[in-house]
Amino acid sequence: MAKKISAAPALKDYKTNTFVDGDMEIRFAVGPEETKTMDTQKLIDNFLVKDLMVADTIKLVYSHYDRVIIGGAVPATKTLTLGNHPELRAAYFLERREMGIINVGGKGTVTADGQKFDLEKLSCLYLGKGTKKISFSSASKKAPAVFYILSAPAHATYPNAVFTKEQASPVDLGAAETSNKRTVYKYIHLEGLQSCQLVMGLTILAPGSVWNSVPPHTHTRRMEAYFYFDLPTDQRLFHFMGNPAESRHMVMANNEAVISPPWSTHFGCGTTNYGFIWGMAGENLVYSDMDPAPVPTVK
Ligand SMILES: O=C[C@H](O)[C@@H](O)CC(=O)C(=O)O
Ligand SMILES: [Zn+2]
C-alpha cells in the first residue's frame, strides 16, 4: 500500500519561474528561447544563487533541471540539522535522493545517522539514499566550515563515504599562455565515489590564470551547477551561459552558485584566480561526456 504523504497543498497560480516555498526556493526550468530574451535581473533571478552561505543557516534551492537541489550550510555558532521539505513529499530528505557535500571552509563534521565524517577543506562526502538524519558542525567558531551541498533523485543506495582532495585523481588542464592553467579534482564520478546520477568535483585555477572551462562545452544529458569559492571579496567572476550562439553573462561574487541548464554552456573569467565546485546530474556518470563549443563558435 502506498505510504501516506502529507496533505495536498492548495493549488498554486504560478506567475513566475521562481518562488520561495518555506525555507526552500523553487526554480522552474526555462528553455533557450525564453532565456535569450532575459535582461540582467531576469538572468540573475533564474540562474544565479546568491546568499547561499549564511552563518547558522541551511539554504536550499530546488532547480527543476534534473530536480537538483543546491544548498549551503554554515554552522557558525551551532550544529545545523537538515530538515525535510513538503515539496519532496518524502518521509525525510534523502528518502529518494542522494547528496554530495564539499567543505570550502574550516574543519567541519557531517553526522549521518550517528556516523561522524570529518571534512577538511576540499574534502567531499557522498551520502546515499536512505540516510535519515544529517547534521553539520564546525571544529572552531573562529573558522567555521562552509558546506556546499548538491542533491539529486536516486533509485538505489550507494555507501556513505569520504574522498579527500588527494584521492580525487587530479588532472592538469589548460596553459598559462591562454590564462586557463588549472587542476581538476573529481570526487563523485564513474571511477570515484559511486552514485546514482550525481557527478561532482572541483577545479582550482593557478595564479595568473583566470578562464575556467575553456574551450567551452555543453552536455544536454546533464544539467550542471558551478559554485565559485576563494574569490577575494573585491574581485568578481564573469560567468558565461546560454546557447553558445547567444551567450549571456552574469557577474558573480565569492560563494555564489550558478545553474547551467542542460542546453547551456558554462565557462567563466575571473578578475583573479579562484576555485569552483562543479556538479551535475542526468543521464550518465561519464565526466568526459561533453559536446565542444569551440571559442570561435561562441557568439
Ligand atoms: O562538465 C564538466 C564541467 O563543466 C567542469 O568540470 C569543467 C571544469 O572544471 C574545467 O574545465 O575547468
Ligand atoms: Zn560541463
UniProtKB/TrEMBL annotation:
Binds 1 zinc ion per subunit. Pfam families: KduI (PF04962). Keywords: Isomerase, Metal-binding, Zinc. Its cofactor is Zn(2+). Zn(2+) binds at residues 217, 219, 224, 266. It catalyses: 5-dehydro-4-deoxy-D-glucuronate = 3-deoxy-D-glycero-2,5-hexodiulosonate. Pathway: Glycan metabolism; pectin degradation; 2-dehydro-3-deoxy-D-gluconate from pectin: step 4/5. One of its GO terms (molecular function) is 4-deoxy-L-threo-5-hexosulose-uronate ketol-isomerase activity. It is an enzyme of class 5 (isomerase). Catalyzes the isomerization of 5-dehydro-4-deoxy-D-glucuronate to 3-deoxy-D-glycero-2,5-hexodiulosonate. This is 4-deoxy-L-threo-5-hexosulose-uronate ketol-isomerase. It comes from Niabella yanshanensis. The gene is kduI.
